[in-house]
Each structure stands twice: as C-alpha cells, then as structure tokens.
Amino acid sequence: MKINKAVIPVAGLGTRFLPATKTVPKELLPIVDIPSIQYVVQEAVDSGIKEVIFVTGRGKDSIEDHFDVAPELDLVLEERGQTEMANTLKRIAEMIEIVSVRQKRPLGLGHAVFCARDLVGNEPFAVLLADDLIEAEVPCVRQLLEIFEEKNESVIALMKVPENEIHRYGVIKGNGISSRLYDVQDLVEKPAAKEAPSRLAIIGRYVLRPEIFSLLEKTSPGTGGEIQLTDGLLHLLEKRKLYGYEFVGERYDIGDKYGFVRATVAYALKRPDLREPVIAYLRSALNNE
C-alpha cells in the first residue's frame, strides 16, 4: 500500500532554546543557513511522501510561510540579480503540498498525532519528529516504508543508545527477526537504566496504520498529564503486530543544545564552501584552549 502523507508535529514552545524561540519557532532555527524543519520535510519528500501535515500551535504560522511562495521577495531578488537564490526559494515552495491543523492545547505527542486524524483519513501514514535530523543514504522514513510495504504493519525507528541515556527515551522489548528488524513485544516510556528491557530506543520516525487514531482517542493521559504516543502504540500492540527497525544513518538530536551545535558543525563540514575554514577554526580553537 502506497503511503502518501506524513504528519510533522511542530506545536511545541521550544522553551529549551529561549530566548531565541520567544518570537522565532524552534523549527526555523537554522542549521548553518537552512531551517531545521526543511531538512525534515526534505526527508519526507525524498522518501516519496506527497503531502505533509503540520500540527501547529499559536505563533507557528511562519513555518508554513517558509514553504509558501513570496512574490515580493522573489521580485527583489530578481531585480538584484540574485537569480540563484530566487530559484532556491521557488524550489522550497514547490517541494511538497503542505497543509496544517492546530493543536490548541499542549497535551502530548499522542494528542498531536491524533489532531491530524481528519486530514490523514483512513490510510497509513508516516510521522516525523522535527527534533530529530537523520542523515542517511536511504532516508530513514524510506527505510521504514520498505518494511511496511513488506509486512503491512506499523513500524517504528530504533537506535541503540548508551545505558546512561536510556531514561530519556521510549524503549522496546523485542525479538530479533534479522540483524536490524525486531518484532516488538513491549514498550516502556523513559525507564530507569536497570529497568530498561533493552538499549533499543524509539527515535522520531514512525509509519503507522490508521487504527492508531481510534486507540489514541481512548488513551488516558500519562506522564505529565499528556497523551503519549508510546501508550497508543501499546494499545495497537494488543491488536496487531508492531515492528521496530534499527535504521542506518546518523541521528542528531536538535531538541538538545549540544545536539544542535553538533548538527551545525557536522552539516557545515559537508559544505564545500565551509569545510576548510571550519576545520581551520576548530583546530585553532582547540590549540588555544
């Protein structure tokens, strides 16, 4: 079954990046000169997704604006002879169809996904969390879609994390089917290290069957009074198979300040115009410590 829609929740307040996010959505903070959300949307596009559904909140209209046409700006750039940049902005506006729905109250990730139910309809869909940038030769969502197309069951992205970080993640208990594919048996949200069933953490990429919506509707608030997507997946697991796939790629947690800096340096080093000066600066900075 072809999956054409992806849900990207972007309603969060971004408090960990204040004061920068007082007026600028966290998702528009740039990794070098490209807003982080553009990398996430590009992953969806490169995976074959045709429509992105943003789940937004107050003050997030500028995220949609970034993917819209800007005739006045295009005209100014053309008049200044900056044709290449004008063409770049046009490509961004044309990269994918964008629609949105409001999450009026911050009731958790599960609730954010549930808010997209009417726009998704009765069809499977992908979910991409904007705090995770994943660089991979085959896009992470595309890797999950290949599993879904084979199994016709929901698939979640997994990554092995150090024991001292396991308390930050949802974690699976599962049976290995192949070197990277797991038949999920249980999920635990943010367990203590000694109670974690494995070191396989759930990362912000999912391909879900539409049954998840009716299950999220019945899911009671959990930690912090929020409706957790992990709890909805537990209910799904009672009715259907759930697979976990340890994706191939490099993940950057840009919801964390260190992760954001790490991503910025890594992406800068991949730029031909920046690589050498950035390396020179880093060497100089380390030598001056």
Overall residue-averaged pLDDT value: 92
Give the H and E element order.
EEEHEHHHEHHEEHEEEEHHEEHH
Computed Rg: 20 Å
Q: How much of the residues is beta strand, in percent?
A: 15-25%
Q: Mind telling me the CATH superfamily name? A: Spore Coat Polysaccharide Biosynthesis Protein SpsA, Chain A
Task: Please summarize the sheet with the most strands.
Answer: 9 strands, mixed
What distinguishing features does this structure have?
289 residues; alpha/beta; Spore Coat Polysaccharide Biosynthesis Protein SpsA, Chain A; nine-stranded mixed β-sheet; two-stranded antiparallel ribbon; 13 strands; globular
Question: Would you kindly provide a written description of the structure presented here, covering whatever features stand out?
Answer:
By secondary structure, this protein is α/β, with parallel strands linked by helices. The chain has a single domain, classed as Alpha-Beta Complex (Spore Coat Polysaccharide Biosynthesis Protein SpsA, Chain A). 36% of the residues lie in helices and 24% in strands. The chain contains 11 helices and 13 strands. A 9-stranded mixed β-sheet has the order 5-4-1-6-11-8-12-10-9, sandwiched between helices. The longest helix has 13 residues. It is globular, with a radius of gyration of 20 Å. The termini are far apart. The mean pLDDT is 92.
